[in-house]
Amino acid sequence: MAAELFSTSLPHGEDEEEEETKKNFVQLSEPEESAERNTVGIDDGDDGDDDDDDERLSWQGAHPTLRERYMYSDEVELDADTVLATLYAAKKYIVPAVAKACVGFLETSLEAKNACVLLSQSRLFEEAELTERCWEVIDAQAELALRSEGFCEIDRPTLEIVLQRETLNIREAAVFQAALSWAAAECRRQGLAVTPRNQRTVLGKALYLLRVPSMSLQEFADGPAQSEVLTLAETHNIFLWYTATNKPQLDFPVGKRVGLAPQRCHRFQASAYRSNQWRYRGRCDSIQFAVDRRIFMAGLGLYGSSGGKAEYSVRIELKRQGTLLAQNLTKFLSDGSSSTFPVWFEHPVQVEQDTFYTVSAVLDGNELSYFGQEGMTEVQCGKVTFQFQCSSDSTNGTGVQGGQIPELIFYS
Asked: What DSSP character marks residue 30?
């Protein structure tokens, strides 16, 4: 698993344990003393001369590349097994070019299944930009990120920060289940039997960051109420909170997470309908697009019937260079207006910059449809620029200038 490649088996604990975490990571990662001196040319001995230390730091800061520091090459060869140890060494010896290369490597490797592990490491190394990139992935693909093996490997301070996150795009029932999975892994790390009581103990105050009352009554009854992690009094009070007029005070946050607001890229400047002009009948409408920064494709906005209410069956797909990344088969009901109707992928899909992707929709319905006109080859949506080009997969007439797939729905 990609998450495992970046795992460091760091100990877990409260906030005050974070410094100990750093020390333990140092012990695992520190190169041999002779190798340090031969490679970097720095003596770790403490001769008490602060002026020499200041001079050394100033000299290193003024010579950021390896060649300027009399090392053998400017080329930095990194791999998943050594990148974190290399980043630690680069930070310790103030080699910003190497540190930057390490962070760049980690960013290009970032995906939902390792985002939580890298979040933990970016906090450890105080890499604010990498931390922000991790949050972008975790927020948009929260269900995949929290379901990953990597989530179970993070330290408890990072767990608490994730559970506090307002913008996670996820159902609270899935957050609760992820917290139990983390607790089971933590029990095993501590040599404890995986029991509800021990899971509650290792979670500690993190348990009360779960927004249990924001679940539906059915979700609560099927999940937390039967988990045995909550006390009988907590379970009783939460049931009363759902049903009673006079609601009890709870130790759990009651408000739902805000989540992320989906953005829509509308590629047509007008829409129209004409008699016998546009039918679906199971043929493929397709378009290619590229973006100038990473986004997360959530779904498509589609036109519906121009002749009143109608139901359509639809299969949507997202491909990159012919490889299928996501698809969904569903139905939607249109109301006869020229509005677009959202159809979602099961999970948001990470889309990288400067690469063309293909979105397709195959609809089946008897009614004539609206269609787009005056299509644009480039559209600015907030901070994201979209470029469009025709797709060879399109067999129903859709292209850049007109047709179907009027909207791309995404998170950024």
From this structure: P
Question: Do residues 87 and 107 make contact, with C-beta atoms less than 8 angstroms apart?
Answer: no
- Is 151:201 a contact under the CB 8 Å cutoff? no
Rg value, the chain, Cα: 26
Question: How far is Cα 339 from Cα 326, in angstroms, rounded to an integer?
Answer: 25
Q: What is the DSSP letter of 32?
A: P
CB 338 within 8 A of CB 370: yes
357-386 pLDDT, tens digit per residue, is 999 999 988 778 889 999 999 999 999 999
pTM: 0.78
Q: Determine the longest span between alpha carbons in the chain, in angstroms.
A: 89
The CA distance from 66 to 209, in Å, is: 45
> For residue 196, which amino acid is it?
P
The CB density around residue 32, as the number of other CB atoms within 10 Å, is 8
Segment 193-231, tens digit of pLDDT: 999 999 999 999 999 999 999 999 999 999 999 999 999
Residue 49: φ, ψ to 5°: -95, 95
Q: How far is CA 222 from CA 35, 71, 177, in A?
A: 57, 61, 11
